[in-house]
Recover the amino acids of this structure.
């Protein structure tokens, strides 16, 4: 089991499958908010559903849409389980708090190199940790 | 005697509250204010905020496309709790154009919800300005003035050009600030976040709004970081409000940035040293005319279907409307092409009075009021119904923000956009 420490975190503990993105993410620029599938042509996670997954995202992009969008996704039943950013902007925190989604920022190891889409990850925001079983090399 | 004990959540996180703020948290000012300050404490504590700062103005963002039924229900709940803004508050561009253009059909049911949102705004003492350029018409905060603005383009303009202080206050955040009259002091409310971090040696002749958008892409895209603050130096002239508007909107879009400096232009950058608060830049970029040209050259047209030229993102100012009217005068949008302009009601009203609207409409340009193009409700279906493949714009922001709707976007200078609209030839 690998433990990643994060700089900042909010929310309740959660365990779910990861969806790892290789580039920034905005729910307005990159997501079809009616089916929960990444729709931006050429996005590293194009075609993947965010529903019930822990989104692992290097940076936030844009835009204020996330302030409402995560709450809207929750209401539509297609919200992710949690958000884990390398770097984020306040929009993501504001949107996550409104929707009750756990959110983290700033990892102490290169999470993008360690965790893969589909891996089960366990977030404990109060301990500011993220744990998972690493893949065999 | 009532022996029940009311359980009140007095969690204050990292913030030290004033007696007035404690009263809000206890519920003395009603449930809407209590819920608002609780939300602000959670967000502020994430960033380690130690206190609140009073604000003078809030600018809220919310429309049915982005809020959805859940957001509307939340707004209704605020209304039921008698939420009232305690500072002057305006609203951002909306998603419904209420225009009868058959090519831009929107859902009737969603339109009714949008009208309800606008009506509820008025009840809450929000002025529905439907503007993403409030800094040009509605309210201009001064140097050092704290506000809570809920649109990225407005935030970066306020911090950079006006020297006011705000973070991105998205969704509920700007509503909460409007109800409590304050916001947690983190990020760009604090001196340290406002120091430049990246030097941009600007050696390009900047001659069109699209050049400023291209510059924002060149700087923002490789530095996606809310807390990065580019410092531009070398322009050698005083840029206009519209030029800085396009630069800021593009930096905020590509880089998620909330502030820039321009030496000798913006108020906290009288000198390069002042912009960096005496520190050394972490990185220096040189941007030439060839770099700007390379941005245009990087876009590719896709074969097939119809195409659309859009002037939007941010909404057009009165002088941009004047400029476009002059360019379209005596010309006509080509068959099979569409040309769309968006602006707010205040600009539209004056542009109508001054004849710019009539000139543009005579040329076949569609003018939408109170919206921005990329946030239109039902936009993916509108694209499909019209068979629109390429979207050409002079807005660096728009060609980035609209991509979830699967347009192939192409950035071009204003002259080229007008020529493409009127000839139908993609160039």
């Amino acid at each position: 089991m690998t433990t990643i420490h994060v700089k900042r975190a909010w929310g309740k503990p959660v365990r779910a499958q990861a969806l790892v993105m290789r580039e920034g993410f905005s729910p307005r620029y990159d997501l079809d908010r009616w089916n929960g599938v990444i729709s931006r042509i050429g996005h590293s996670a194009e075609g993947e559903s965010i529903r019930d997954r822990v989104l692992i995202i290097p940076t936030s992009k844009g835009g204020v849409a996330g302030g409402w969008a995560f709450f809207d996704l929750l209401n539509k039943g297609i919200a992710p389980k949690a958000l884990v950013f390398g770097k984020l902007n306040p929009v993501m925190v504001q949107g996550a708090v409104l929707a009750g989604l756990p959110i983290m920022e700033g990892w102490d190891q290169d999470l993008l190199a360690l965790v893969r889409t589909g891996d089960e990850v366990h977030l404990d925001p109060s301990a500011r940790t993220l744990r998972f079983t690493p893949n065999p090399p | 005697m009532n022996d029940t004990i009311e359980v009140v959540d007095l969690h204050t996180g990292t913030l030290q509250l004033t007696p007035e703020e404690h009263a809000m948290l206890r519920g003395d000012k009603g449930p809407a204010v209590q819920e608002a300050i609780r939300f602000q404490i959670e967000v502020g504590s994430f960033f380690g905020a130690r206190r609140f700062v009073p604000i003078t103005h809030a600018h809220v963002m919310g429309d049915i496309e982005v809020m959805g039924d859940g957001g509307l229900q939340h707004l209704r709940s605020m209304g039921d709790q008698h939420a009232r803004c305690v500072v002057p508050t305006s609203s951002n561009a909306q998603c419904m154009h209420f225009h009868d253009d058959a090519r831009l059909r929107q859902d009737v049911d969603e339109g009714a919800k949008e009208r309800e949102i606008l009506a509820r705004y008025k009840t809450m003492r929000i002025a529905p300005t439907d503007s993403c350029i409030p800094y040009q018409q509605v309210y201009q905060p001064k140097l050092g003035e704290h506000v809570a603005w809920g649109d990225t383009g407005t935030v970066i303009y306020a911090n950079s050009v006006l020297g006011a202080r705000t973070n991105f206050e998205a969704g509920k955040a700007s509503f909460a600030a409007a109800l409590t009259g304050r916001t947690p002091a983190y990020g760009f409310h604090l001196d340290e976040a406002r120091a430049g971090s990246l030097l941009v040696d600007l050696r390009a002749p900047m001659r069109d709004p699209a050049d400023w958008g291209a510059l924002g892409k060149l700087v923002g895209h490789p530095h996606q970081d809310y807390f990065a603050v580019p410092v531009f130096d070398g322009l050698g002239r005083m840029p206009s409000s519209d030029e800085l508007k396009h630069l800021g909107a593009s930096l905020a879009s590509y880089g998620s940035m909330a502030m820039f400096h321009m030496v000798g232009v913006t108020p906290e950058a009288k000198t390069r040293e002042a912009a960096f608060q005496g520190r050394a830049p972490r990185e220096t970029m040189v941007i030439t005319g060839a770099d700007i040209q390379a941005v245009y050259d990087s876009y590719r047209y896709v074969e097939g279907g119809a195409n659309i030229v859009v002037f939007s993102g941010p909404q057009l100012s009165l002088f941009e409307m004047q400029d476009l009217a002059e360019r379209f005068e005596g010309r006509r949008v080509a068959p099979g092409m569409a040309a769309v302009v968006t602006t707010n009601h205040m600009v539209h009203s004056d542009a109508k009075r001054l004849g710019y609207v009539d000139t543009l409409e005579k040329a076949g340009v569609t003018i939408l009021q109170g919206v921005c193009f990329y946030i239109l409700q039902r936009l993916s279906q509108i694209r499909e119904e019209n068979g629109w493949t390429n979207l050409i714009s002079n807005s660096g922001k728009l060609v980035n923000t609209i991509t979830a709707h699967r347009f192939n976007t192409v950035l071009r200078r204003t002259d080229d956009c007008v020529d493409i609209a009127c000839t139908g030839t993609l160039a």
Q: What stands out?
A: Chain A touches chain B at residues 8, 10, 24, 28-33, 39-41, 59-69, 71-72, 74-76, 87-91, 93-95, 97-98, 103 (CB under 8 Å). The CA atoms of residues 2 and 134 of chain A lie 6 Å apart. Chain A has one domain: 2-132.
